[in-house]
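Data availability (excerpt). The following record was deposited with the supplementary files.
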Amino acid sequence: MERQEQQQRELYRARGYSDDLLPKEKEKQTWKAFNYFTLWMGSVHNVPNYVMVGGFFILGLSTLSIMLAIILSAFFIAFVMVMNGAAGTKYGVPFAMILRASYGVRGSLFPGILRGGIAAIMWFGLQCYAGSLAFLILIGKIWPGFLSLGGDFNILGLNLPGLIAFLFFWAINVAIGFGGGGVLNKFTAVLNPCIYIVFGGMAIWAISLVGIQPILDYVPAGVQKAENSGFLFLVVINAVVAVWAAPAVSASDFTQNAQSFRQQALGQTLGLLVAYILFAVAGVCIIAGASIHYGVDTWNVLDIVQKWDSLFASFFAVLVILMTTISTNATGNIIPAGYQIAAIAPTKLTYKNGVLIASIISLLICPWKLMENQSSIYLFLDIIGGMLGPVIGVMMAHYFIVMRSQIDLDTLYTKAGDYKFYDNGFNVTAFSVTLIAVVLSLGGKFIPLFEPLSRVSWFVGVITAFVLYVLLKKRDAPGISTEHKAA
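Predicted structure:
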């Protein structure tokens, strides 16, 4: 069997595919449940997610309702991450190749670039800039004079301390990206205990300051109790799950390393559940407790940490927040971008070439300038995320229902430029279904009639795409021809 797999790899390599896009050898599929247990913790506990918790309070839901909604979200996230990563585990191939099986060789370029070439790169740059702001707080605590270096120096709106902090933090993120999943796994193994200490400790700190009952009774100033709490409960779940639209699409970039489906399923499920239970309790207690203690509604954990008197506590907390940002950036942005850019020209680009290209583009877009108009940039990225939900629905329907979990790798790894399957390399059904699902899920941002649907956009997009794709494909003959098996 191993000899046959090696011969297959040599054949695909002869067709022009780089090693980064080839099926993983069995000896390199070494990730066990613990590796996946530690993988996503940093992606849960980061600054934007804690700010999001503050937004949930504004909806008028009770503290316990918000906690429960966040915890329930973990089940949906884990299910999608595990199931959409199943093909990657079985065949040892990255997302860029799995996407071909659903949309066609040429058709996969659009959703692939949307995920890895636009959303991932923009988020990478924005996360690097957001992290550099935390890094400035860290440096300022140790060396206050650093914040005044350079005087009036300014480059495209960034002063010298800001530029140094951004470039340094950007370089660390790029280095983790170059290391790929192996380096990331070692990084998260160190990060996880620190997350428990910092965010668990902050929750205990908040409870000790004001008590548990005031936290449970907390309502932000000017907010009234919600009347339609059932629908808003679902809105909170949708908001939490929607954050994972992009990572869930490219889950195979990480599950391709798994020893078995059971290992990645067990590790991801337990890891996400534990992470979100801690996040639900810590997030609500920290935000509510700090707001009560300081007498002003505070959503940003960095603002809370800055007010602490203890230099050591502030330093350690900000350091861990920086590490969670790096972890989020690697898992959700730079690693998927590297694989997807390599897939655009598999005969010429490698994964590391992709990381380098994505990193340079993230600099050229000047993310600090984009952040000057946060509402428009986040609307743009939200729309991209809403478009990726239907892609998940199509991918899962195609792999589990239409293909019955069988992919013909010889057809999938076709010769460069030799597009034999679907209509000239495009799965028209997949694109049609995706378009309909996107209109339904995001139409409410522009069409008042669809506004309720847009508030639960992720669920609408995934479910609509899944059901429509299955129904439309049932019109085809029961058997799937060999030529179409992988496409």
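Summary of structural features: The two ends are 25 Å apart (CA to CA).
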